[in-house]
Amino acid sequence: MPRSKNKVASHRKRKRVLELAKGYWGARSKVWTVAKNHVEKGLVHAYRDRRLKKRTFRQLWIVRINAAARLNGTTYSRLISALNKKGVDINRKILANLAVENPAAFTEIVKFSAN
């Protein structure tokens, strides 16, 4: 009895990987073995970087809040501590957005937390 290789499934798998490799340079988008390795590595980086993106954005928000807080005569750590003591639940993303887009509102928050 001849060996069954399930050509349909194999073909679909290769087609899916080569579709993901579309846009890669040279053999990376054409040759199955090369494309398979590069797609797999790209997916690993994508998985890792979805988590790193969250850290990077939090760092950016903290830098923006600190810069705006220093313009208002305080520091980031003092501002966050004062807001926590007052029981103000406002996240860093919103605070950073206020600091950039609406400095007057941010100044009011700083004044409220200082009292």
Describe this structure in words.
By secondary structure, the chain is mostly helical. It has a single domain, classed as c-terminal domain of poly(a) binding protein, CATH 1.10.1900.20. 76% of the residues lie in helices and 0% in strands. It has helices at 7-20, 32-71, 76-86, 92-101, 103-114. The protein is rod-shaped and about 85 Å long.
Question: What would you say about this model in short?
Answer:
By secondary structure, the protein is mainly α. It has one domain: c-terminal domain of poly(a) binding protein (Orthogonal Bundle). It is 76% helix and 0% strand.
What's the CATH H-level superfamily name? Ribosomal protein L20, C-terminal domain
Report the order of strands and helices. HHHHH
Distance between the termini: 86 Å
Question: What is the class in the CATH system?
Answer: Mainly Alpha
| CATH architecture descriptor name | Orthogonal Bundle
Number of domains: 1
Poorly predicted runs of 5 or more residues: none
